[in-house]
Design a protein that fits this description.
The chain starts with 8 loop residues before the first strand and ends in a 10-residue tail after the last helix. It has 4 helices and 14 strands. The protein is globular, with a radius of gyration of 21 Å. The strands form 4 sheets. Strands 3-4-1-2-5 form a 5-stranded mixed beta sheet. It has 275 residues and is an alpha+beta fold. The longest helix is centred in the middle third of the chain and has 17 residues. Helices cover 18% and strands 29% of the residues. 30% of the residues are buried.
C-alpha cells in the first residue's frame, strides 16, 4: 500500500486545498510536486500513514498569504466530490482526509488545554506534548452517526438541514453522546429531529470526515412508527422519496451519498467495498 502514497505535497489554506491552475481535477489527490512549492519558508509536515512505512506530506499556508498567479483554492468538500469515490480505509481520499485532519488539529492545538503552555511535537508520534505540565494531546476524533431510513414502500427519508445549500436533502445525522451506544445515537437523533421510531438498525460503512474532526458511522434502519415532525431547529423539512422523484442530493465522495446510491441501486444488503 505505501508504495502508492502520493509523493507530492498537500497544501491547505484554511478550509481549502491549494493547487496550481494547470493541475487538473483528476490529479488533485496526488499533491503538488516539490518544484511547485511557492516559497522555501513553508514548513512541510511528514504525517505517518496508518499502515506500513511511508509519509504523507502536507503544509498549512497562512490564510493571508497571497497565492501565485493562476493558483486556485478548492474547498475541501468540493475536492472530495471531484474525486467521485468514498474512502475505503486507505487510498487517495483517505490520505487526503488524514492530511487535512492533522493539519487542522495542529493549527488548533498550539497551546496546552490544561495549563496554557505552548505545545511541542512529541517524539516519534503525531501527539503534541506540553513541556510545562507534561500533558500529551492526540488528534481529536468525534464519532457521529448518519442513517438511511427506508419504509415498507421502499421509500427513503431525506431531510433539509438549515445549514445545507437551498434545495439539498440528505440523511439524518448527529454526534454520539457520552455513555451512549451508536445504535442509541441513531434512535435518539431520528426521534429528536423527525419524531420517527426505527427498527432493524444495521451498521453499513464509515468514513473519516474532518469537518472539523468527525468519524461518520453509516447505518441503515427501517421505519417502525410515527409521523414526520421536524424539530425546526436543525431540520426544516423531511419527506419520503422514491427513486424516480429525488431532490438535489449531497455530492459524491460522502458517506451520505454512498448510502443513498446503494439504496438506489438495490445493493444496501451487500457488504461494503464488495463492488
Amino acid at each position: 500500500m505505501s508504495s502508492n502514497i502520493p509523493q507530492g505535497v498537500y497544501l491547505f489554506q484554511g478550509n481549502t486545498l491549494v493547487v496550481p491552475g494547470d493541475i487538473p481535477d483528476s490529479l488533485i489527490h496526488e499533491g503538488i510536486p516539490d518544484n511547485y512549492i511557492p516559497t522555501s519558508s513553508i514548513t512541510i509536515l511528514d504525517i505517518p500513514v496508518n499502515e506500513g512505512p511511508g509519509v504523507i506530506k502536507s503544509a498549512d499556508l497562512p490564510t493571508d498569504m497571497p497565492l501565485p498567479a493562476e493558483w486556485r483554492g478548492i474547498p475541501m468538500r468540493q475536492a472530495l466530490s471531484l474525486m467521485d469515490v468514498m474512502v475505503d480505509g486507505n487510498g487517495p481520499m483517505g490520505w487526503l482526509l488524514r492530511a487535512y485532519h492533522i493539519v487542522q488539529w495542529r493549527r488548533e492545538s498550539v497551546f496546552c488545554g490544561s495549563c496554557g503552555g505552548r505545545n511541542e511535537a512529541a517524539a516519534n508520534s503525531l501527539a503534541r506534548r506540553c513541556p510545562v505540565c507534561g500533558r500529551q494531546e492526540f488528534p481529536r476524533i468525534s464519532p457521529a452517526i448518519i442513517v438511511i431510513i427506508i419504509n415498507d414502500e421502499d421509500k427513503v427519508l431525506l431531510a433539509h438541514n438549515k445549514q445545507f445549500t437551498p434545495g439539498v436533502y440528505s440523511l439524518i445525522a448527529g454526534f454520539n453522546e457520552p455513555g451512549e451506544t451508536l445504535e442509541a445515537t441513531v434512535v435518539r437523533e431520528v426521534r429528536e429531529e423527525v419524531s420517527l421510531e426505527l427498527h432493524d438498525i444495521r451498521y453499513v460503512a464509515s468514513q473519516p470526515w474532518p469537518f472539523p474532526n468527525s468519524l461518520m458511522l453509516g447505518f441503515s434502519a427501517r421505519y417502525a412508527a410515527g409521523a414526520i415532525k421536524v424539530d425546526g431547529a436543525e431540520i426544516e423539512d423531511a419527506r419520503w422519496f422514491t427513486r424516480d422523484m429525488l431532490p438535489e442530493l449531497p455530492g459524491n465522495g460522502s458517506v451520505s451519498r454512498y448510502l443513498i446510491n446503494r439504496w438506489r441501486e438495490g445493493t444496501m444488503g451487500v457488504p461494503p467495498w464488495s463492488k
